[in-house]
Design goal:
Largest interface: A-B, 84 and 84 residues
Shape of chain A: globular
Largest sheet of chain A: 7 strands, mixed
CATH topology of the largest domain in chain A: Phosphoribosyl-aminoimidazole Synthetase, Chain A, domain 2
InterPro entries (chains A, B): PurM-like_C_dom (IPR010918), PurM-like_C_sf (IPR036676), PurM-like_N (IPR016188), PurM-like_N_sf (IPR036921), ThiL-like (IPR006283)
Helix content of chain A: 25-40%
Strand content of chain A: 15-25%
Order of helices and strands of chain A: HEEEHEHEEEHHHEHEHHEHEEE
CATH superfamily of the largest domain in chain A: PurM-like C-terminal domain
Catalytic activity (chains A, B): thiamine phosphate + ATP = thiamine diphosphate + ADP
Radius of gyration of chain A: 20 Å
Oligomer: homodimer
Family (chains A, B): Belongs to the thiamine-monophosphate kinase family.
Number of domains of chain A: 2
EC number (chains A, B): 2.7.4.16
CATH class of the largest domain in chain A: Alpha Beta
Structural class of chain A: alpha+beta
Number of strands of chain A: 13
Protein name (chains A, B): Thiamine-monophosphate kinase
Chain lengths: 342, 342
């Protein structure tokens, strides 16, 4: 090692990942897709396996002062299932590794696994392995999910074509707004432990933050309707950031329309209460775990009436850039300001 | 959650794992084997995939005051490859997730990945995914490895039969003795930072601790010789503990012979220097990552002359128990004292 010291913050999370990935070389013919999508793709005889993994740390990804352990367990599974969904695959197996300090009792571990097992039940996945170890710090959870698909059913980030329709499921921004509420109530509680946090009017946004649901329902419906998205990813870092990823991987541009962006009423009202711009929450809020995908125009009629799929824009030529058309009709350049961990 | 608080130490690591696993229910037909072996087994068309995962924490599994980051990266891959080998499968893909604090520079991350990439090259596996995040504490590494085998080639822990021969590769106890030396020199250094650690005469044992090699060479040789072990696992917790696992899973007993146990001369001499009983190091030292397996007697002739496979005993009926026959001819009951993390 040389004596030069470069801070990770100089590269940023995505820069560091790009830097590390540039050194990776694929050797096995069974590796169909390595790093660079929501999940890796591996040959498996008559079908393919997709593999994805997430590492969740107390104090970085969850705060046990307001996140119940059962929800943390559920979410740890759900975020990985969401990455499998984003490949248009069906999750089948997960492994869960945990590191615990002696702060945690067996009852606490049971609460965590109650959530993990509930998520396994909900998504139809089998918990097939893992590792359990001591931690000197907080709780650490590492989940790997494995899913299945026929090769021709997969949706990569790289398949979007000019004139495809950009679709997003559910509504966006709720998880970010929920996090702000939970953080605010935590500060209130820390300042005065006799104060009871008043969370009743915020259940939509807080539960989206604490216990998001991967959109496997949409994946199954798309199959039933015979629609294979031309590209797809899940919205974990924020809509704008994900659109950038799809545009980069597919070498296309995109235009989206402010008046088409889905936002829940409670999310909107709470954002305003918190002095946050609701549209900024929709564009840059992370952790919604909705699906962002593109479809060929020929498939539009099949999805047109779906109550939970929103058509927010379309794919353009790469030189046309990435734009948001505001309600007033002005086209403003999209900026990708996803969640930064570094 | 009730108000009862049970300490994890009351159950122990294996007790906690058993407790959690008792709640797991397998739902998918593609899950051939879930928790309970060195790796899970998943149906994959004409073959099967094996999946294993390990979570490694700074301060628990490695100490950066003496473990170079390149070695830590190599070892993180090797220990997972070893679990794939223990199923008699060939590793093909890995995912690597890391959590880093700002203590780590880009150059430090590069050193870690130099080791990870070197191990990928050495074992012929592809790095296909992972997660990179910030940590508030030390370095965390989570690796998942995926391997391939034909279903009939797999060696489970549960296949040992009465009269099978117990085999072990390489030599044992070195990694534990190496750890003791590294810890001793660390204390010397901490007491007097001007003292240069004197590690030159201990390279065998220290390099076994710092950069163990998974025995894929043996797996390939067994294939070439047409030998499928009736049961197998890798020696990560200690020989005695692993024999207990095989006996429990296979519902058999075992007798091993002290004079057949393989120990390297430097390991022996260093153990004596450290006032450790060399045989105790062989029986209970962890992290050697050698392979322990059983073969049918008909296969003995094929392996008899192998320089690195040792025939340490045989499988008996369950009611005959688990015994070590000492050099003096006394049979003493084996005790499983594997490494305890809790």
């Amino acid at each position: 090692m040389s004596n030069k010291r470069t801070e990770i913050s100089e590269l940023g999370e995505f820069g560091l990942i790009d830097h590390l990935n540039s050194q990776v070389r694929i050797k096995n013919t069974s590796t169909i897709k390595g790093i660079g999508d929501d999940a890796a793709v591996i040959e498996a005889g008559d079908h393919v396996k997709v593999v994805t993994t997430d590492l969740l740390l107390e104090g970085v990804h969850f705060d046990l002062s307001y996140a119940p352990l059962t929800h943390v367990g559920f979410k740890a599974v759900a975020v990985n299932v969401s990455d499998v969904a984003a490949m248009n695959a069906i999750p089948k197996q997960i492994t869960v590794s945990i590191a615990l300090s002696n702060r945690f009792s067996v009852e606490a571990v049971d609460a965590l696994y109650e959530g993990i097992n509930a998520a396994c039940e909900h998504y139809g996945v089998d918990l097939v392995g893992g590792d359990t170890t001591a931690s000197r710090g907080g709780l650490i959870i590492s989940v790997t999910a494995i899913g299945e698909a026929k090769k021709e059913q997969l949706s990569y980030r790289s398949g979007a074509k000019v004139n495809d329709i950009l679709c997003v499921t559910g509504d966006l921004g709720a998880a970010l707004v929920g996090l702000q509420i939970l953080e605010r109530e935590k500060q209130v509680y820390l300042a005065n432990p006799d104060m009871k946090p008043d969370l009743e009017k915020y259940t939509v946004v807080t539960s989206r933050q604490l216990k998001p649901d991967a959109r496997m329902d949409i994946i199954h419906e798309l199959r039933d309707l015979g629609v294979v998205p031309t590209s797809m990813m899940d919205v974990s870092d924020g809509l704008a950031s994900e659109i950038f990823h799809i545009c980069k991987a597919s070498q296309v541009g995109a235009t989206i329309y402010e008046d088409k962006l889905p936002i829940d009423k409670q999310t909107f009202d709470t954002a305003v209460e918190l002095n946050l711009d609701p549209i900024t929450c929709v564009l840059n809020g992370g952790e919604d775990y909705e699906l962002l995908f593109t479809i060929d125009q020929k498939d539009f009629a099949k999805l047109e009436k779906h109550p939970d799929i929103h058509f927010i824009g379309h794919i353009t030529k790469p030189e046309e850039g990435k734009y948001l058309v505001t309600k007033s009709g002005t086209a403003v350049q999209l900026k990708a300001q996803g969640w930064k961990h570094f």
